[in-house]
Amino acid sequence: MTLPRSAADVLADHVTLEIECIDRMYLNVYVPKLQRPLGLIGYLRDQLGCPIASTAAVAPITDAFVAAIHRFAADHDVPIVHFTKGQRKDDVMHDYLADFTATEGVLFIGRAQEKVSVFRTEKRRDRDGVSYPWIVKTSSMVNQWYCYCVDADFGPFFLKFSSYFPYNAKLCINGNEWAKRQAAQAGLGFTALDNGFAAVDDPHRLQRICHGLGPDQIDALLRKWLARLPHPFTPEDRAAGYRYDLSILQAEFSLTQMLDRPVSGRIFFEQILRDNLDIGRPDQIGLVFNRRIFTRGPRPTPGRFRTRVITEGVTPSLHIDYKKSKIKQYHKEGRALRTETTINDTRDFSIGKRLHNLPALAQVGFTANRRLLAVQRLRHNPIAGADALHTVNDPLITAQGTRVAGLRFADPRVQALLAALCVFRLLPHGFTNRDLRGLTASILGLPAEILTAGQMTYDLRRLRLHGLIERVPHTFRYQVTATGLGHALFLTRLHDRVLRTGLAELTDPDPPLPSRLRTAERAYRAAIDDLAHQASIAA
């Protein structure tokens, strides 16, 4: 097996399996009616029957909730872990998970103090000096209760409750773990790769499973475990509309591409990390996320746009930032190329936060992964570029063995033909031999009678067999193909704006203005002469 020659070659010929899936999701679990002070006042008065709106009235609810957590842990023999500062909670979870053998259940309950948004009662005074309570939203350090669980459908996850009103919670799941369990339940054979897949019997079937994860499955998971775990709201509260809902805080969308061998990944990252440090610039990241970015004007696009290369041990990773979102690309376990788009604010893409927006958000995330790889493939595919140039520039042999002359890039007549194609693309009904003859002669600055109809027939055949035009069926009219327009635009601009302009700057003996290209050429020539002199090989 030959080694890949470029990053594009790796993506084209050395990927054995690719699966895209929702990865880690972090969701806000909240009661919509209790996110503003007026909602709290309504709860205190209508649900609890408090004549005075004060957060002191919810203290018994907090005490009962904490007591229910301890009682649940004792009744189900679930350990309570008090997290220390700096302790990695996932490490604790993996330790408990190693000894867990049941299909589903609660691994442990963890307690940690964290700063969250809460409601407080302040004492204020009116104009007469009489004090009255006033509810405000603020932040405070309160106990958070982490319920680390294993679900038969989702695998490991955690549901974190705040012990203070309005008792907001957080739900963290992993879509790849969900897909593994769905594949196993469906009898689909696979080999796991951390939170992904290394091999599978039927990749198309697995991809359909991964795309099956949506709002309904996630909402069902929450309802299932809210019914099992202690939480502060009673059935009467839920009947009155005080019911938990879900919104998206963070969502990761991954594309895992298994490689045939580790060296393929190393070749890919050697090229990508060296040549893609500008991918985070506004003009480049706009291509990846398909967003129009304004850097100037009255309303420039907010946020940061940057590229970072982070190395952990000997494994580098590429990080691209767009507003509050980012794309991460790394060599996973030395076996796979992993591309992950993490969206931290759905409004970066004019999408709402509610869970029912997940399909639209997934479309953005998965498309960003693919567009990044497409940009990298174009940047690192000189072989395809060389093939395209030879296809246009070199002669070709038809299936009947007839030789067709190439469209030589530097030939003035070829440049005139390409320029004519740019114009004819605008004609909805195509063009004829006579149309091409008149416009080509005009571009060349020649009388129309200089070019004969036979010469134009020859050129039309060249253009058609090289794929730049196609004949309208049952007519003598022709239309410019999409390939023809792209090649014509690029090659004419390259010829007129780069080659002719650059060569004019280099060869003009007395330029009217200083030329950066001429200065660079002289500096390069001087450096070569100095190197030859130092090596004692100067003429």
Structure at a glance:
The protein has 539 residues and is α+β, with helices and mostly antiparallel strands. The chain is built from 17 helices and 17 strands. An eleven-stranded mixed beta sheet has the order 2-3-4-5-6-1-9-13-12-11-10, sandwiched between helices. Strands 7-8 form a two-stranded antiparallel sheet. Strands 14-15 form a two-stranded antiparallel ribbon.
Straight-line distance between termini: 47 Å
Radius of gyration: 33 Å
DSSP strand tally: 17
Class by helix and strand content?
alpha+beta
Strand content: 25-35%
The major beta sheet can be summarized as: 11 strands, mixed
List its traits.
alpha+beta; 17 helices; elongated; eleven-stranded mixed β-sheet; 539 residues; Arc Repressor Mutant, subunit A; 4 domains
What does this structure look like?
It contains 17 helices and 17 strands. It is an alpha+beta fold and 539 residues long. It folds into 4 domains: 190 residues, no CATH class; 167 residues, no CATH class; 108 residues, Winged helix-like DNA-binding domain superfamily/Winged helix DNA-binding domain (Arc Repressor Mutant, subunit A, Orthogonal Bundle), CATH 1.10.10; 27 residues. The protein has an 11-stranded mixed sheet, with helices on both faces. A two-stranded antiparallel sheet has the order 7-8. Strands 14-15 form a two-stranded antiparallel sheet. β10 and β11 form a beta hairpin. The mean pLDDT is 84.
